[in-house]
Amino acid sequence: MSLINLHRCQQGILAESNLHSLYLMFNLKTEEVDEVKQQLACFQGMINEFSEEYSESELSAFIAIGALAWDNLFPNARPRELMAFPQFENAKYPVPDTPADLFVHIRSDRADVNHLVGTHVCELFADKVMLVEQVKGFRYLDGRDLTGFVDGTENPHGEHRRAVALVSREQDEVFAGGSYIHTQRYRHSMHMWNELPTKQQEDIVGRTKVENIEYKSADKPPCAHIKRANIKDEQGKSIEILRQSMPYGTMRHQGLFFISCANTPTAFNKMLERMVCVDEQGHYDQLLDYTQAETGAAFFAPSIDFLRQYL
Questions:
Q1: Burial level of 96, CB count in 10 A (0-12/13-18/19+)?
Q2: CB-based contacts of 5, cutoff 8 Å, min separation 6
Q3: 307 and 40 in contact (C-beta within 8 Å)?
Q4: 179 with 301: CB under 8 angstroms?
Q5: Catalytic residue positions, numbered
Q6: How far apart are CA 260 and CA 47, in angstroms?
Q7: Closest among 193, 207, 189 to 153, alpha carbons compared
Q8: What's the CA gap between 24 and 121, in Å, rounded?
Q9: Distance of CA 243 to the CA centre of its chain
Q10: Which of 28, 145, 191, 200 could pair covalently with 151 via S-S, beta carbons 3.0-4.6 A apart?
């Protein structure tokens, strides 16, 4: 039996979809890591206070530590599978590796509450960190990506979300309740995409656009996004991730801020490899002809219990 429930996870990892999100990336500016660890320990308590004050907003959040920054902050304990963002020799397109020390994911049904919480996060860490990126995400229509297709259809539901996204005690007793986080900011070539006929778009994705009906296996082109992104283990069982992605954009630049939460980095690594690498038959994820990753980073979001020991 999984003993995840003995370790309190950061609830933002498992949160259901909201209307708005705010993503903040920080790098450390100080060697005084003990103070930073105390601030990390205070993070979830601060989120809880805002969540109670603005309960109608359905606010949630999580904070994650970068793979390259982990040993500096916590030299005595490291998640067993935490590693740098993956790289591949035969990738069709570049796979950017843009590490950050801290990643904060804030989401709610109110953009103003997200902004308020974001300012307090920056005040919490103050001069100990430098903000290197901030992105505002939003729900588009009925949960669609800006390409017009429903996003996150394959996400697990109910209690299965916990099993997919959270490390179990059997996997890593010290870091049970935590999650391996991978982020990528994709920029869509909307002009190119919108020039394609709907049927060609559907063939590239592997499902219908309006009805959101997945193609039958025999009808999926070998380069279809769904065919390349869905991976299975040696027993033929699906290897899943929990996606917490949302569209972002201005009138100039638009895309998807992709977030993977999983109990092992293997799931994301294998999925990305099948998407970007050309196989022996020359197949890769053809959707990448119309969207390009501009960032990529690997993190671990520890349980609340792990962080609070540093109060």
A1: middle
A2: none
A3: yes
A4: yes
A5: 151
A6: 21
A7: 207
A8: 9
A9: 6
A10: 145
- Phi, psi at 259, each rounded to 5°: -135, 125
Indicate the Cα dihedral angle 140, 143, 144, 149, nearest 10°: -160
Neighbours of 263 (CB within 10 A): 25
- Rounded to the nearest 5°, which phi and psi values hold at 70? -55, -50
Amino acid in the structure at residue 21: S
pTM for this prediction: 0.96
Q: What does DSSP say about strands 297-301 and 179-188: parallel, antiparallel, or unpaired?
A: antiparallel
CB 226 within 8 A of CB 215: yes
* b/e sequence 227-250, b meaning 16+ C-beta within 10 Å: bbbbbeeeeeeebbbbbbbbbbbe
Per-residue pLDDT of the chain (311 residues; tens, 9 = 90+): 344 445 799 999 999 999 999 999 999 998 889 999 999 999 999 999 999 999 999 999 999 999 999 999 999 999 999 999 999 998 999 999 999 999 999 999 999 999 999 999 999 999 999 999 999 999 999 999 999 999 988 899 999 999 999 999 999 999 999 999 999 999 999 999 999 999 999 999 999 999 999 999 999 999 999 999 988 887 878 889 999 999 999 999 999 999 999 999 999 999 999 999 999 999 999 999 999 999 999 999 999 999 999 87
Q: Say how many Å lie between the first and final Cα of the chain, rounded.
A: 31
CB atoms within 10 A of CB 92: 17
Report how far residue 210's alpha carbon sits from residue 271's, in angstroms, rounded to the nearest whole number.
25
> What are the structure tokens assigned to 103, written together?
């990643």
